[in-house]
DNA sequence: TAGGCGTGGGT
DNA sequence: TACCCAAGCCT
């Protein structure tokens, strides 16, 4: 039996001390001792949902510069927000971001509520984000459990079940590490530890302030935690994307209202959530024309399926756009806010740089 | 409640 | 190549 290494401070205090010494400076993070801006905290939390810090770093400044305060964002057309979001994925976030800004302006005069329950009712704000905003922006004793926290706690206590199956336990153990005097820093410290030290693949245990207390490390089994969820196999689907050109200056675009790529500009296509046999492609063309299939298909991996899309190109002289479609100037294609799959198709057809 | 919902980087 | 993973939310 290996005993925990003796220590003179409690784990929560050790965690905070580590955070004070090693915290990153991030564009959305207030400097030590400065008051955070709730709008910036909220904006960053939405962008960071299932998205890496490195990616958000590249995109956050442009958002903040374009819409420096929540009133600016609420006044902006939704289309502008979606175009600015293009390429970031999970586009419901952008629709909810705009809806949330409007809600805060209308219901709260542009000031975010401080209450976790009230935050939780805002569009796009779930259990994690509500707790994170309450703790980080308003220093309230709320426990925000994200993937980092799940991993840290699962290792610290050698939790055998997948974290989502034992959420109350994870939350309770995370709460035990919070310092009542500094809830916001405690929450960020847990996440920072998961991001910098207690990493998914190769945790840097010698540098970890919690290693004397870590059950997984005592077992020498850090990589066994957290327990993996069983996941469904990712199906492969085939489909077609139709790029209709009018003369040399216009392209046909449509906009799926919801669901996959909802709200985003797109070329007409087969229903991408279905596997369509090649023989059926022509049924889904947006207009009769001499459709020519490009040589190799475009491939794209979504969260829950892999797509192999044949890109068809045709020219038309017709002025009228088919139902649900519109003509967009080719010169503006780069500003239309195309999701990545559609950018790939456009690049494949020589209409955009890859 | 489990599945739908993007994307890019790492191994 | 084929996974895994990232400061999740919604229905």
TrEMBL record:
Residues 47-196 form the HhH-GPD domain. One of its GO terms (molecular function) is adenine/guanine mispair binding. It catalyses: Hydrolyzes free adenine bases from 7,8-dihydro-8-oxoguanine:adenine mismatched double-stranded DNA, leaving an apurinic site. The keyword Transferase does not apply. Its EC number is 3.2.2.31. Binds 1 [4Fe-4S] cluster. SMART domains: ENDO3c. Belongs to the Nth/MutY family. Adenine glycosylase active on G-A mispairs. MutY also corrects error-prone DNA synthesis past GO lesions which are due to the oxidatively damaged form of guanine: 7,8-dihydro-8-oxoguanine (8-oxo-dGTP). This is Adenine DNA glycosylase. It comes from Methylocystis hirsuta.
């Amino acid at each position: 039996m290996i005993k925990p290494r003796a220590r003179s401070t409690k784990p929560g205090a050790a965690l905070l001390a580590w955070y004070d010494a090693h915290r990153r400076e991030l564009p959305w993070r207030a400097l030590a001792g400065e008051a955070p801006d709730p709008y910036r905290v909220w904006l960053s939390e939405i962008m960071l949902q299932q998205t890496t810090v490195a990616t958000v770093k590249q995109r956050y400044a442009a958002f903040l510069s374009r819409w420096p305060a929540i009133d600016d964002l609420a006044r902006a057309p939704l289309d502008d927000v979606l175009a600015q979001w293009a390429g970031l994925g999970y586009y419901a976030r952008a629709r909810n971001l705009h809806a949330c800004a409007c809600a805060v302006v209308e219901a709260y005069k542009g000031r975010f509520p401080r209450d976790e329950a009230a935050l939780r009712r805002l569009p796009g704000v779930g259990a994690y984000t509500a707790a994170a905003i309450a703790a980080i922006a308003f220093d309230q004793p709320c426990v925000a459990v994200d993937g980092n926290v799940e991993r840290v706690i699962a290792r610290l206590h050698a939790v055998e079940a997948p974290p989502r199956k034992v959420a109350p336990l994870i939350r309770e153990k995370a709460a035990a590490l919070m310092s009542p005097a500094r809830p916001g820093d405690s929450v960020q410290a847990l996440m920072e530890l998961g991001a910098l030290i207690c990493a998914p693949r190769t945790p840097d245990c010698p540098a970890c302030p919690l290693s004397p207390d870590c059950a997984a490390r005592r077992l020498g089994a850090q990589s066994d935690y957290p327990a993996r969820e069983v996941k469904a196999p990712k199906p492969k689907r085939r489909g077609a994307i139709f790029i209709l050109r009018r003369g040399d200056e216009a392209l046909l675009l449509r906009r799926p209202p919801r669901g996959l790529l909802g709200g985003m500009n797109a070329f007409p296509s087969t229903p991408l959530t279905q596997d369509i046999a090649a023989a059926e492609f022509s049924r889904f063309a947006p207009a009769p024309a001499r459709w020519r299939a490009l040589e190799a298909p475009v491939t794209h991996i979504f969260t829950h399926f892999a797509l192999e899309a044949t890109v068809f190109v045709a020219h038309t002289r017709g002025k009228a756009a088919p139902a649900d479609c519109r003509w967009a100037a080719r010169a503006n294609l780069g500003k239309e806010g195309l999701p990545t799959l559609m950018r790939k198709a456009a690049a494949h057809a020589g209409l955009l740089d890859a």
